[in-house]
Design brief:
The protein has 186 residues and is an all-alpha fold. It has helices at residues 7-22, 27-48, 52-68, 79-106, 115-133, 137-148, 153-160, 164-185. It has two domains: 7-106, Rna Polymerase Sigma Factor, Chain: A (Orthogonal Bundle), CATH 1.10.1740; 115-185, Winged helix-like DNA-binding domain superfamily/Winged helix DNA-binding domain (Arc Repressor Mutant, subunit A). The chain is 77% helix and 0% strand. Belongs to the sigma-70 factor family. ECF subfamily.
Length: 186
Amino acid sequence: MRVTGDSSSTTSDSRDTDTAMAVGTTVDHLTETYRAHYRSLLGLAALLLDDTASCEDVVQEAFIRVHSARSRVRDPEKTLAYLRQTVVNLSRSALRRRILGLKLLSKPMPDMASAEEGAYELLERDQLKAAMRTLQRRQREVLVLRYFADMTEAQVADTLGISLGSVKAYGSRGLAALRVAMEATA
């Protein structure tokens, strides 16, 4: 705005600013455009999406978004173009969400043990722990490292600082003692 001594030029500049603000899409114009082109917007969404409910949701959401951003639509003639572009963008987003949902659903769900199976597993685990406590210390260490920590015999030997032959002997004797202890509790 120019600042001059003439008050009439200040008044005309403020009118020009008001006119520029009024040039954007009005609520009435947007609503009329939406009503007049609702079916074509719905058809556009239907070409991009596959179910009617989603199409209606997308078109309504497009109206809401353009309504809230109507001040950015300077030329009222471009209101329909903004609505169409918003419908296309929202349809793409809906498809992306669907594809992501399908990817997540297509992954197999892990098999869940029944409550009965879980109870049996818990009993077996408790029995195994009790049987492991009856073994000699070295036998228990070898079996835990070999079968529960998934180490090779050589790795067990290095970890415990014993020979490979000792690992094999402790493992063999430990498994035999464990079988006897498990059969006694069964």
